[in-house]
Amino acid sequence: MSAYLRQVFAIVRKDILLEFRSKDRLVAMGAFAILAAALFNFSIDVASVRPRDVIAGLVWMTLVFGGLLGVGRTFHLEAEDAAIRGLLTSPAPKDAVYLAKVTVNFVLVFALSVVVLGVFALFFAVDVNAALLPTVLVLALGSLGFVALSTLFAAVSTGTSMGETLLPILVFPLLVPMVVFGAGATSRLIAGRPFAEVAGNVRILGAFAFAALAAGAVLFRYVVEE
Amino acid sequence: MSDEVALRAQGLVREYGAVRAVDGVDLTLRAGEALTIFGPNGAGKSTLLGMLGGAIRPTRGEVSLRGEPIDGATTSWRSRIGILSHRGFLYARMTSAENLRFYGELFALDRVEERVYAGLDRVGLADRARSEVRELSHGMRQRLSLARALLHDPDIVLLDEPYTGLDPSAASVLRDVLSELRDGLRTVVVVTHNLREGLAMATRVAIQRGGRFVWEGASDAFDPVDFERHYHATIEEAA
Fold first, then answer.
1. How far, CA to CA in Å, does B239 sit from each of B48, B208, B209, B234?
2. Pair B213, B33: CB distance under 8 Å
3. Amino acid B176: pLDDT
4. What average pLDDT does this structure show over B113-129?
5. pTM for the structure as a whole
């Protein structure tokens, strides 16, 4: 294995180990998803609105807000005892640090998106099985684009006095295209439309994720260097 | 001591807005030399050490290791530097061995397990390999941090206030390990307020105030009492 991949895997393994020991982000994101689904369930009058028409938007909103709860704390693992300085003064390239953080965040946010889809389908009694795989693919691409962008901005906001409060202000405007195309594709797939009808949306989501990853890998160094 | 220049800093300046923390420091250290930098709070010592270790980017000036300039574009030079700060760079919810193993992987070392246990043994923590860092005392954490800083056998070692908050036994372990570093091959830079310990481990001494070196000289020209007088006189003169 190359030194680069070894360094990426070392950070991924360390972050996952710390996540399972502290469970901070897992608990916060999971609880948020379930509570959001419960609240939306009570706040939507199913006699006047068909759940099938609104579920995609609700899933994506929960994904974005719940995801930010977790991604915003990406660098809190490193805050204690100035461990971030140990990471950044090691020979691991900054883009390796970024890719490792994105990988762990992707695992968390993608898992959240699948849980959210399942919980909303259960609460609103909507059958999502017919187009489950394409829907999961859309959520996976959306999760990747989301974490690629928000991990970079989490590094920016961690270094400011406003901290996590700043993160939504920085990230939300940039997430608009992803939410528009992601929620649009999810909505049509849940409505039983063929995958070919959303293939364009999927390509745009893929391009968004790739562009966000490339930009993040290049810019991360400038964000974290003192 | 070798004639080879191990570490060179030229015209180092670091500004934070209107504040100039380091103001034009020039420094040349040969392999085997140990420099201790003294100075009051706010003199810019830690900022200077941060720039020497590549953790802080200079506003102006350049640092080079054995003639190779350090910059953000490459990372290979980082394997030659070991940094011990008064912050440990450790993960509280990981064990001592897990912390060292993680840094071993980051530095892409061979024989990681062997190095981890040799490092723990060196600082007297072999029996705490499976203890989470949050269960260790401050002195133990500082010793573990020293093992982390030396895990990759760096030839330049930078120490920022290594004795802060240590009990006598932890300070003794630290003193023994630091004396091992004076093997004529390694270059050591220490920043400290502890005049006695700092003088004992140095071959050269500098006094920094207002971001500049206001005095530099050989450490063997003074005994600790004389040096303390000299230090206070120099600081007052530079004020």
1. 20, 11, 8, 9
2. no
3. 87
4. 94
5. 0.89
Nearest CA in chain B to A23: B93
B82 interfacial to chain A (CB closer than 8 Å): no
CA quadruple B45, B53, A213, A109: dihedral sign: negative
Distance from chain centroid for Cα A125: 25
Task: Kindly state the tokens that stand for B12.
Answer: 């180092």
Q: What's the rounded Cα separation, in Å, for the pair A141 and A208?
A: 9
In one-letter notation, the amino acid at residue B73 is A
Q: How many CB atoms sit inside 10 A of residue B237's CB?
A: 10
Task: Please return the burial class of B24, using the count of CB atoms within 10 Å of its CB with bins 0-12, 13-18 and 19+.
Answer: middle
Closest approach of A152 to chain B, Cα-based (Å): 18
Chain B residue numbers touching A86 (CB-CB < 8 A): 83, 89-90, 103, 148
Q: How far is A151 from chain B (nearest CA, A)?
A: 20
Calpha distance A74→A142 (Å, rounded): 18
A101's tokens:
């953080």
pLDDT-based confidence at residue A1 (cuts at 50, 70, 90):
low
Q: Tell me the CA distances in angstroms from A15 to A21, A68, B13, B231, one per residue in order.
A: 10, 17, 36, 46
Mutate one of B46, B90, B94, B102 to test the A interface: name it (highest A CB count within 10 A): B102
Instruction: Decide if the complex's ipTM is over 0.95.
Output: no
CA separation for the pair B196, B201 (Å, rounded)? 9
Q: Which of A77, A96, A98 is nearest to B75 (CA)?
A: A96
CA distance A110 to A66: 11
